[in-house]
Amino acid sequence: MLKLFFKLILLIILINKIHLLPNPQINANKYILVEPDLYILYWDHNTTDINFEIHVKTNGWISFGLSRHGDMEYSDVIVTWLKPDGSFNFTDRHILQEKKPKIDSEQNWFPLSLKQQNDYMIAIFTRKIQTNSKNNEDIDIAVGSPFVVYAWGTNFDPDISYHGPKNRGQVGINLLKTSNQINPNKTQIIEYKINDSLINGYYCQLFENKNNIFEQDFKFEALISPGNENFVHHIGLNECSVDLETEYLKKNDFPVPGPCYLLNSQINKWTEVTNFCQNSRLMWSDYNIPKIQNYTSDIFNVKSKSKYVMIYVHHYNPENRLGN
């Protein structure tokens, strides 16, 4: 009798623990941004609007948004928190050079609700898929796998304290799904190899657009040499415009691989090259996903005259540890 009683009590405790996880109002799509249940994203959309619901285990401020290159700099985010009187603050912001998020001149993300439930801050908000922002403070959502960025603070702080290197992240998510599928029996492998490495920062290299990959169905696989997995933050492949060939390469040598996307308004040869290669096509992220991962792009059979692609690698190593 004693053993049966013990099992019954244990079962009740486990069920109660499970029920502490709040039920979402939006549940068409789900992505756990921070395992096991620290930061959870839910979303749905129609042809014009997209709705988000985030559950974050904190009683401080929370932030969520989009990024062109996968880092906080130049990202389009919302920041929200509950005030002591029960009301909430919600603002559409953008981030410049990793400084405190600046409030947009035009608000294009709109709050629906914010509440604290058990250990979770729950925010529901909406925006247009295409904001048509005139000041470039907002990022339109395209079909494919754009970067989602997120951060949170553990304490209430209206000044938005720095979240540190751990209370943040980014990942490529296909927010707008299509029915297109790739036939694995009709594929061709094209290899782009980058040998050099940096301790910290961005590294860019230009390649020929072999077989015009943008007019094919394609996907991107990142193979990282053992011992360096923890230092590769994300990788992106951008399409370069025809102006790169007609304007830049006619007057300049083919760019040697090197540092790019420099902070604090620093300028080098890649500053001009990257201006010709801004059309993001594929992204790979190492944050909260397996080290070797395929991402299938939903940008299929796009007409393109581009002869070059640019691959950039973000080595994120704030402690300046050496890899192999």
TrEMBL record:
Q: Which SUPFAM superfamilies match?
A: CBD9-like
Q: Which Pfam families match?
A: Cu2_monooxygen, DOMON
The cross-references to InterPro entries, in alphabetical order and at most eight, read: Cu2_ascorb_mOase_N (IPR000323), DBH-like (IPR000945), DOH_DOMON (IPR045266), DOMON_domain (IPR005018), Tbh/DBH (IPR028460)
PROSITE patterns per UniProt: DOMON
Give the DOMON domain ranges: 37-153
UniProt keywords, alphabetically: Signal
Recorded hits in CDD domains, A to Z, give: DOMON_DOH
Similarity remark: Belongs to the copper type II ascorbate-dependent monooxygenase family.
Instruction: Please report the name of this protein according to its UniProt entry.
Output: DOMON domain-containing protein
